[in-house]
Amino acid sequence: MTGIEIVGTGRCVPSRLVTNDDLSRFVETSDEWIRTRTGIAQRYFCAEGESNAQLAAGAARAALERAGISAEKIGLCVAATFTADHAMPSLACEVHEALSLPESAPAFDVNAACTGFITALETARSLLAGGSLKGTYALVIGSEAISRVLDMTDRNTCVLFGDGAGAAVIRLSDNHAYHCVMGARGDASLLHAGGAGCDERFVHMEGKAVFRFASETVPKCVMQVLDSAGLTMEDIDYVVCHQANGRIIDHVMKKLNAPAEKFYKNMQSYANTSAASIAIALDEMNEKGLLKPGTRIVCVGFGAGLTWGGTLLTF
């Protein structure tokens, strides 16, 4: 499998910071209740006038700047989201316009919920490897404005999510080992009989079922990635899970019998940003100097559908 090099990362969050105490003013909850069950302390919500496209473009600009390359070198733009501002055009096309990407660079969205960034990354890598693109680099984005689809009277969901975007600039590389596994099953879809019309616009989640699914699937996914690469947990520097819930990550850590320092966490600052969470975490790690040459990371996403996917990234 042809590898990829991540040459730049970026992130962007909206201006409105919402703490657990802020949420407790209009829903029956508390800072202690949220922290002990999720590990989340705060999140960001889009303020009036802020859009998913603005977040995605902001993260993409930051990634280009960190990569030190100009927009005209981008050959592809893939955005992962389930909260695009419009049914069409795609979020990726809005970023394409905002950054003045070349006309020769295709732009489209993928929707795999919280597995979205993994899916977008593999999609971009495969297209780069296919040889049909004009540019050397691909822009891969995970971006969400989940606050617009939250029922703010439901404490079981409104406390869990946040808005934000993360992005990566990638190129093909034979010197950076890469392995990917993905899967899905559709038995967790909420469907209405006969395709009947429904104003079901809020996020709905069965928390206990998601916990069971993640606790079983994520460790298996990590091991599948490692097996495909011929590596063990001892060979890995970090595991970056989708930042859904601190308890889930702790459970995964125990099932893999891995030390806590290998698992990067930042859900305390952003909450669950779905397709953006892994990309935001990678940019934070990059900013902190954790992604040194030779660093090996397994990234694992899991989300609605159900979907899951994991990648081995080498820096």
Automatic annotation (TrEMBL):
Enzyme Commission number = 2.3.1.180
List locations, semicolon-separated: Cytoplasm
Q: Which residue numbers delimit the Beta-ketoacyl-[acyl-carrier-protein] synthase III N-terminal domain?
A: 108-177
Keyword Lipid metabolism, does the record have it? yes
Q: Please indicate which superkingdom the organism of origin belongs to.
A: Bacteria
**Any single GO CC term annotated in Swiss-Prot or TrEMBL for this entry:** cytoplasm
The residues covered by the Beta-ketoacyl-[acyl-carrier-protein] synthase III C-terminal domain are 226-314
Q: Which residues form the active site?
A: C114, H242, N272
* Gene Ontology BP terms: fatty acid biosynthetic process; secondary metabolite biosynthetic process
Family in the record: Belongs to the thiolase-like superfamily. FabH family.
Please name the PANTHER family in this protein's record: 3-OXOACYL-[ACYL-CARRIER-PROTEIN] SYNTHASE 3, BETA-KETOACYL-[ACYL-CARRIER-PROTEIN] SYNTHASE III
Task: Please describe the quaternary structure of this protein.
Answer: Homodimer.
* Physiological role: Catalyzes the condensation reaction of fatty acid synthesis by the addition to an acyl acceptor of two carbons from malonyl-ACP. Catalyzes the first condensation reaction which initiates fatty acid synthesis and may therefore play a role in governing the total rate of fatty acid production. Possesses both acetoacetyl-ACP synthase and acetyl transacylase activities. Its substrate specificity determines the biosynthesis of branched-chain and/or straight-chain of fatty acids.
**HAMAP family for the chain:** FabH
* Protein name according to UniProt: Beta-ketoacyl-[acyl-carrier-protein] synthase III
Query: Which gene holds the coding sequence for this protein?
Result: fabH
